Amino acid sequence: MGSKKTVAFHTLGCKLNFSETSTLSRMLENEGFEKTAFDNHADVYVINTCSVTDNADKECRQLVRRIQRKAPESLVVITGCYAQLKPKEIASIPGVDMVLGAAEKFNIAQHLKELTKGDATKICSCDIEEVSGFHSSFSIHDRTRTFLKVQDGCDYNCSFCTIPMARGKSRSDLIAGVVENVKQLAVNGVKEIVLTGVNLGDFGEGEENFYKLACALDQQEGIERFRISSIEPNLLTNAIIELVANSNTFMPHFHIPLQSGSNRILGLMRRRYRRELYAERVKLIKTLMPHAAIGVDVIVGFPGETDEDFQQTFDFLHELDITYLHVFTYSERDNTHALTLGPVVPVHVRHERNKTLRNLSYMKQQYFNQQFAGQTRKVLFEENEKSGMMEGYTDNYIKVVAPYKAEWVNKVIEWNL
């Protein structure tokens, strides 16, 4: 047969996408493909897309153009959220050979066997209502921390969001399935697992729920650290917070989407909580774990957001005992309820508000870090070497940079901050 075919991957978007790309990579390697870096020449390029912002759509197009210039004879496969939402639009991009929707991405190996360069672009997609199965995914050997997908899809209907249309109904692994994956990752030497999902707190069906999953994982041996990725404030129960506070393996680190500090805007966004509940969650975390890091997602420039609404958001965040912000500039998404709302916030105002909150985030992070200066905390150092330096994170997610030592890779080291 000759030499192995090579495949290169590029991931846009969230931790969930990284876990899925890693799983797709292992599937193709098991089928005889050899993985190579995206900047190298490859026989097949797979782009796993996001569609949270316009920028991800544009980036996908730019990547395809880059491949066309570098390797016009190579196969280009697009999957992920953008592929599910706009398969025909993607199929029209010159150089794209196949578009795999949500139900077909994990059948990539079979589809590649039937694909020939030069054929009409193949679209393998279905209505999102038909997507029902759960495919377990995790990243391994890509980073020191592993992203483990335990839940997919979302039943919420936030007015700005296309994710339910891209990923379908909420569905989950079984606790027993997650535990098996965790055991496998422990055997492979993984020290830290980040639990991910589209709406992570909605994990479970019947008697199972996220709290019970966390309890089960807290009993597992072999994994030193678990982190909870983004979890909705209305699903972050007191019991989950108390479990983390009393756990030796769940890290004191939460990422809780807020989106707006104005109750009026939260209503327009169709969020399932108000700022008072959010403040309660933060207060309980900080009461039980004063050292805990809390990250916050915020959207600026949502339709109808007045100067007063934005000021409420700024003041609310300024007063909250949080650590850092992920600030998103609102961008119009097709087929969302937000398109019917107004008045539209001018783009330059959106960017000004984004900058204001990013400055606030910087100050919050600096203040948080300074509280721990001189303390000794446990740091898990990562594999990547950058100019003779290595990076790692404390239990409460403070980034540490140190001179590279190979023996420290994937080790938890006591570190004086």
TrEMBL record:
<dbReference type="GO" id="GO:0035597">
    <property type="term" value="F:tRNA-2-methylthio-N(6)-dimethylallyladenosine(37) synthase activity"/>
</dbReference>
<keyword id="KW-0819">tRNA processing</keyword>
<dbReference type="InterPro" id="IPR007197">
    <property type="entry name" value="rSAM"/>
</dbReference>
<dbReference type="GO" id="GO:0051539">
    <property type="term" value="F:4 iron, 4 sulfur cluster binding"/>
</dbReference>
<dbReference type="InterPro" id="IPR006467">
    <property type="entry name" value="MiaB-like_bact"/>
</dbReference>
<dbReference type="InterPro" id="IPR005839">
    <property type="entry name" value="Methylthiotransferase"/>
</dbReference>
<keyword id="KW-0949">S-adenosyl-L-methionine</keyword>
<dbReference type="GO" id="GO:0005829">
    <property type="term" value="C:cytosol"/>
</dbReference>
<keyword id="KW-0963">Cytoplasm</keyword>
<protein>
    <submittedName>
        <fullName>tRNA (N(6)-L-threonylcarbamoyladenosine(37)-C(2))-methylthiotransferase MtaB</fullName>
    </submittedName>
</protein>
<dbReference type="InterPro" id="IPR038135">
    <property type="entry name" value="Methylthiotransferase_N_sf"/>
</dbReference>
<feature type="domain" description="Radical SAM core">
    <location>
        <begin position="140"/>
        <end position="369"/>
    </location>
</feature>
<dbReference type="InterPro" id="IPR013848">
    <property type="entry name" value="Methylthiotransferase_N"/>
</dbReference>
<dbReference type="Pfam" id="PF04055">
    <property type="entry name" value="Radical_SAM"/>
</dbReference>
<dbReference type="GO" id="GO:0046872">
    <property type="term" value="F:metal ion binding"/>
</dbReference>
<dbReference type="Pfam" id="PF00919">
    <property type="entry name" value="UPF0004"/>
</dbReference>
<keyword id="KW-0411">Iron-sulfur</keyword>
<dbReference type="InterPro" id="IPR023404">
    <property type="entry name" value="rSAM_horseshoe"/>
</dbReference>
<feature type="domain" description="MTTase N-terminal">
    <location>
        <begin position="5"/>
        <end position="117"/>
    </location>
</feature>
<dbReference type="InterPro" id="IPR058240">
    <property type="entry name" value="rSAM_sf"/>
</dbReference>
<keyword id="KW-0479">Metal-binding</keyword>
<keyword id="KW-0004">4Fe-4S</keyword>
<keyword id="KW-0408">Iron</keyword>
<dbReference type="InterPro" id="IPR006638">
    <property type="entry name" value="Elp3/MiaA/NifB-like_rSAM"/>
</dbReference>
<keyword id="KW-0808">Transferase</keyword>
<dbReference type="InterPro" id="IPR020612">
    <property type="entry name" value="Methylthiotransferase_CS"/>
</dbReference>
